Amino acid sequence: MKTRYFLGLLLAAFVVSASSCLEGERSIGKMNDSIKLSTRKADFSASNDSIIITTKGTWWWVNDISVNGNYLVFNPVETEKENFAINGDWFSIERCDNQKLIVRVSENRSSKDRNIKITLEAGDYFDYIDVNQLGRY
User: Fold this and answer.
1) pTM for the whole structure
2) Selecting from 3.90.25.10, 1.10.230.10, 2.60.40.10, 3.40.630.10, what CATH number does the domain 41-133 have?
């Protein structure tokens, strides 16, 4: 009788343990959008241009920046500040306050299209802005 009781408890513990593991798996990556971007995409012609992207959230930073598929080296801690600027050869990314990001591009005189992918982070939530600029044809 004791063996049967023990096996029943062991089975119950296994079922509870397995269901809690499955519950945890369902919640992975389901963080709420705390950044709330006004847009995730900007398409520019070959001319000089810029876009102002606003957020509803104020606690976010730039996690990484990819320029034409190559990651840009910068200090992410600096991007937690209310004001910062990151300047590349043909672009700039500037945070003017807690809720405004300005992306500027210079004229594209080459025939190749250009791309910047900016990944923002707020805790465990990630979002991105995809900026494309056409080449001069």
Assistant:
1) 0.76
2) 2.60.40.10
